[in-house]
């Protein structure tokens, strides 16, 4: 699992995402085991980050179950099964504040 998380973090870093956080979810708390949360400065950058995550997932044979919010780009969710990647613009990240809602940052 750590290798998958590192691949996702590296994909985000490749597109200069800011404030990348990994949150381990407790059993039964959500449909995934981990959230990876990252910020892009603009909707175009969040789309670029999501594209890179999708590219890395495909290249490494990770399950890509879905992608939501891509068109608007303010909050993009990439579902990799056991890992859900959330890519926000700064305003949307601050507003939804997932880090506060979910515990156990790693």
Fold and architecture overview:
It is a single chain. With 106 residues, this protein is of the alpha+beta class. The protein has one domain: Beta Polymerase, domain 2 (2-Layer Sandwich), CATH 3.30.460.10. The chain has 4 helices and 5 strands. It has helices spanning 2-14, 43-59, 90-96, 98-101; strands at residues 18-24, 34-39, 66-68, 75-79, 83-88. Strands 1-2-5-4-3 form a 5-stranded mixed β-sheet. β3 (66-68) and β4 (75-79) form a beta hairpin. α1 packs across α2 (43-59). The longest helix has 17 residues, at 43-59. The model has no long low-confidence stretch (mean pLDDT 92).
Order of helices and strands: HEEHEEEHH
Contiguous low-pLDDT stretches (5 residues minimum) are none
Number of helices: 4
CATH first level: Alpha Beta
**Protein structure class:** alpha+beta
In total, how many beta strands?
5
Number of domains: 1
Computed Rg: 12 Å
Q: Mind telling me the CATH superfamily name? A: Beta Polymerase, domain 2
Portion in helices: 25-40%
Q: Do you know the CATH topology?
A: Beta Polymerase, domain 2
Strands of the biggest beta sheet: in what spatial order? Answer: 1-2-5-4-3
Termini separation comes to 13 Å
The backbone outline, from C-alpha atoms, is: globular
Helix and strand arrangement:
Blueprint: H1 2-14, E1 18-24, E2 34-39, H2 43-59, E3 66-68, E4 75-79, E5 83-88, H3 90-96, H4 98-101
Parallel strand pairs: 2-5
Antiparallel strand pairs: 1-2, 3-4, 4-5
List keywords for this structure.
106 residues, alpha+beta, Beta Polymerase, domain 2, 5-stranded mixed β-sheet, 25% strand, globular
